[in-house]
Amino acid sequence: MRKPKQPNQSKMPMLLVALLLMFVISSCVEEKKTELADTSEIPVSLEMTAELTAPPNVPTPVGRRKAKKLIVEMEIIEKESEMTDGVRYVYWTFGGTVPGSFIRTRVGDEVEFHLQNHPDNKLPHNIDLHAVTGPGGGAESSFVAPGHEKVFSFKTLNPGLYVYHCATAPVGMHIANGMYGLILVEPEGGLPPVDKEYYIMQGDFYTKGKNGERGLQPFDMQKAVDEHADYVVFNGAVNALTGDNAITANVGETVRLFVGNGGPNLVSSFHVIGEIFDKVYVEGGDLVNENVQTTIIPAGGAAIVEFRVDVPGTFILVDHSIFRAFNKGALGMLNVQGEENEKIYSGEQYEGIYLPEGPGIQEMPTTNEIVESEIPAQNFEEQMEFGKQVYMQTCFACHQGEGQGVPNAFPPLAKSDYLNADVDRAISAVVNGLTGEITVNGEKYNSVMTRQMLSSEEVANVLTYVYNSWGNSGQVVTKQMVDKVKNK
Ligand SMILES: [Cu+2]
Questions:
Q1: Grouped pLDDT means (10 residues each) for the chain, 488 residues
Q2: Same structural domain for residues 159 and 122?
Q3: Which of 189, 215, 238 is at the close of a domain?
Q4: Range of the domain at 415
Q5: Is residue 91 located within the same domain as residue 205?
Q6: Whether residue 227 is found in the same domain as residue 185
Q7: What CATH number is attached to the domain comprising 399?
Q8: Residues identified as active-site
Q9: Cα–Cα distances in Å, from 321 out to 194, 234, 241, 267, 444?
Q10: How far is CA 322 from the centre of its chain?
Q11: Are 71 and 51 in contact (CB under 8 A)?
């Protein structure tokens, strides 16, 4: 007699396992389905008008409030504003700001959305909210001409942080002009409380003139198609989150950033220099990642990042595609005040000079010659204005905003005896670079300033600006004076 085949015996338990697995999977799917069904069944009581805020502020958390009928009144405004020093741009906005007003809801809310297109506007617009379950995210029901208002309603089914944007053709152009913002749908009971919350949104801009070119700059369709951004910024303009506009916190506080990316093209590698994100709600959804250095924020996407600030200082927010930060504007600041904690961060303990290749001026290899700027300054006021722009782009990083310098590293230009004593020597420092020991206001510096790649016109303007600021001598520097030093 032949032995029965072995495999037959092991088939039974395998079938059982398979059946069990199917049961487990199907019950999971079932659970997810009922969960979704549930949020659409959440009853709403009462009616309230939504608080809308301009960036970097966010409305009050929903806390434990019940789901409501929430009235949102959003006004579209086309307006001219500043991109950076001397550069103007016509922005198209939701609520008068880029990004648009922050909308804060909770799951189960019935949002009655009023979209108003200001009569002074030139174009029709609409809105696509990624938090909407429905055709076009609301776009189809909200197309509105200048001087009109459209109303539509939706129920928030999924908690999370969502982008909204205009979706009127040409869609790319409406988004590129600033028509985006964030809508938060908090879960039942609200997000866990934190000490500080802020609203930040990245966007890329395309102008006819190149970065820094003065005047009112029109949108450049070809550059947008080619994805060659002239500006990449947080909150609509180059300095929207720096200096006096910086966001703030105190040592020991927890900070939550609602970070979005309007695009239209670029993906953001969002990073805070000197901080680690304790938590990231990845892509603005439920998944929480911990201990993250840099988080990706897709165009048309968002993330919630949270961290505790432990030491004081200025923490720089960047898109870590780093030329965007230092050359195109994607740079913000978080100022933290409070007690030092030397266990966590010691501060500088020692600095010496390190010149492995011997002393001498380091020079970056350059292929392109310095280009003389096309429009020379016509008078002293223009020299000051253009000079300030050069200063903020070139000298600021080392000599600081008020020319105060950085102790032991970069000498001050404010009330600098070294500067005021000898104008040719100052010109030479800028056009040839400067190294070796110098004494400025009684303090010794022994470091290297590299040659600055500026046209004679720009050197004249920036030094005139420096000489006529912060208590300096009032010397005026001309292009001829710069050329004379160059030709020595
Ligand atoms: Cu639009």
A1: 46 57 51 59 94 98 97 97 95 98 98 96 95 94 94 97 96 97 97 98 97 94 97 97 96 98 98 97 98 98 98 95 95 95 83 61 52 77 94 86 86 97 97 92 88 91 97 96 93
A2: yes
A3: 189
A4: 380-487
A5: no
A6: no
A7: 1.10.760.10
A8: 125, 128, 130, 165-166, 174, 179, 271, 290, 294, 320
A9: 29, 14, 18, 9, 37
A10: 12
A11: no
Cα–Cα dist 431/452, whole Å: 6
Using CA atoms, how far apart are residues 444 and 428, in angstroms rounded to an integer?
Answer: 19
Annotated binding residues for Cu cation, written as ranges, equal 125, 130, 165-166, 174, 179, 320
DSSP string of 331-356?
A: EEEEEEES---TTT-----------T
Say whether 442 sits in a helix, a strand or coil: coil
Whether 222 and 175 map to the same domain: the answer is no
CATH number for the domain spanning 259: value is: 2.60.40.420
Domain boundary among 150, 168, 189: 189
The DSSP secondary-structure symbol of 385 reads H
Within a domain: residue 353? no
d(CA 44, CA 110): 7
Compute CA 13 distance to the chain's CA centroid, rounded to the nearest angstrom: 57
- Burial class (CB within 10 angstroms; exposed 0-12, middle 13-18, buried 19+) of 285: middle
Dist. CA 72 → ligand 1 center (Å): 18
